[in-house]
Write a structure and sequence with these properties.
The complex is a heterodimer of chains A (115) and B (111). Chain A is globular and about 40 Å long. Chain A has no helices and eleven strands. In chain A, 0% of the residues lie in helices and 50% in strands. Chain B contains no helices and nine strands. Chain B has strands at 9-13, 18-23, 31-38, 45-50, 55-56, 61-64, 70-75, 84-92, 105-110. Classes of the chains: A mainly beta (115), B mainly beta (111). Chains A and B meet through strand 4, strand 5, strand 9 and strand 10 of A and strand 3, strand 4 and strand 8 of B.
Chain lengths: 115, 111
């Protein structure tokens, strides 16, 4: 079984630009969530997608948006980038419903630097 | 979300057991206790979780206090590969994939 993969691994943007980060869920998982991890901090929950709909959101502004596709892969889009958006963005997949062990599987993240 | 409190850092010698404490005095009856760890330059990795009873798996053991206000993650024999930040997280089944991470405990393992 393949794990969670994210792309790109590193990228540099300038203030005001837009960025799209991608995530492929672990095989068989139907739920994906995104986290932002600033340097030296724990990850912060951005939002979750289940059956292609957002069904949970953390304290992040609307310029953070996402998509989940029928194959359960996902995108995180951030518009109007700010310097404080520089962080490691983590994707996690899980299986909601029966058979859910409660375990989230994380990718290795996409490190975004905003100049 | 109920909050957890962990020491900022701990040190251990290789091959020795490690006990990582976590306080969660405001835990509710439906909160599960989850532990994740994050190795350098990697995403968090699930370690173990439990509700009321002590739990064991191939990675670690989780000891939960009778009143559930604290728990301890036990690594039976620390290795250099166990050096990581360990996060104790309370997860309510109603909040699905939302994990509220604190700053965790940075475990250093020395020879």
């Amino acid at each position: 079984e393949t794990g969670v993969t994210q792309s790109p691994t590193h990228l540099i943007k300038t203030r005001g630009q837009q960025v799209t980060l991608r995530c492929s869920s672990q095989s068989g998982h139907n739920t994906v969530s995104w986290y932002q991890q600033a340097l030296g901090q724990g990850p912060q929950f951005i939002f979750q997608y289940y059956r292609e709909e957002e069904n949970g959101r953390g304290n992040f502004p609307p310029r953070f948006s996402g998509l989940q596709f029928p194959n359960y892969s996902s995108e995180l889009n951030v518009n109007a980038l700010e310097l404080d958006d520089s962080a490691l963005y983590l994707c996690a997949s899980s299986l909601a419903g029966r058979g859910n062990t409660g375990e989230l599987f994380f990718g290795e993240g996409s490190r975004l630097t905003v100049l | 979300d109920a909050k957890t409190t962990q020491p900022n850092s701990m040190e251990s010698n290789e091959e020795e057991p490690v006990h990582l404490p976590c306080n969660h005095s405001t835990i509710s009856g439906t909160d599960y206790i989850h532990w994740y760890r994050q190795l350098p330059s990697q995403g968090p990795e699930y370690v173990i979780h439990g509700l009321t009873s002590n739990v064991n798996n191939r990675m670690a053991s989780l000891a939960i206090a009778e009143d559930r206000k604290s728990s301890t993650l036990i690594l039976h024999r620390a290795t250099l590969r166990d050096a990581a930040v360990y996060y104790c997280i309370l997860r309510n089944t109603g909040t699905a994939s939302k994990l509220t991470f604190g700053t965790g405990t940075r475990l250093q393992v020395t020879l």
